[in-house]
Amino acid sequence: MKIIPNPNNIFPAPNSDMVTYVKPTITNPNISVGDFTYFSDRDFESHVTHHYDFNGDKLIIGKFCQIAAGVNFVMNGANHQMNAVSTFPFYIFEGWDEDVPSLSDLPLKGDTVVGNDVWIGQNVTILPGVHIGDGAIIGLNSTVASDVEPYTIVAGNPARLIRRRFDEELTSLLLEFRWWDKEIEEINALIPLLTSSDLENVKSELRRMLNKRG
Length: 214
Prior knowledge:
The chain is an alpha/beta fold and 214 residues long. The strands form 3 sheets. Strands 1-3-6-9-12-14-15 form a 7-stranded mixed beta sheet, with no helix packed on it.
């Protein structure tokens, strides 16, 4: 009997309980993860730190992302007030007479957004408010402090552009085609194309399919 990929199966890799699809494990309403994104560990939410309700920030991750062990998402609660004399957060400790500061007084960076088919290497730290484009690759041990363009490779602390994965035409075709939004059967049929290193042929096939769709 043919096995159909199931995005709600927490342990999708046969004989392994240390690779998990993230979506079915999420309990926090401010975390959204797309189908088939996996984490090479358990308890993904414990790797989303300083995620406090009063900030209202969200972590949004697309489909088919590959997140290695040790990756951490640092959310806006890690930021302290910087426009006053002291950065000490009196308001989070008992006995101090300070209310939670106005959000306008905190250096909030907004939602953290990761696109689709993004590969995040081991022990990467992603800082608040970063947007990572579709198809990007983040090198291991990197600290991502600024936005990452689609289909680029970045690495380092802070992460910097290493190179673009593809030429402008192929990048544009992939962003338009959005293979990750197809139905499971169609994605299965596309696997030979998605895993091909003959990039000129990939471009030709993408053009053909996009023209047929249009």
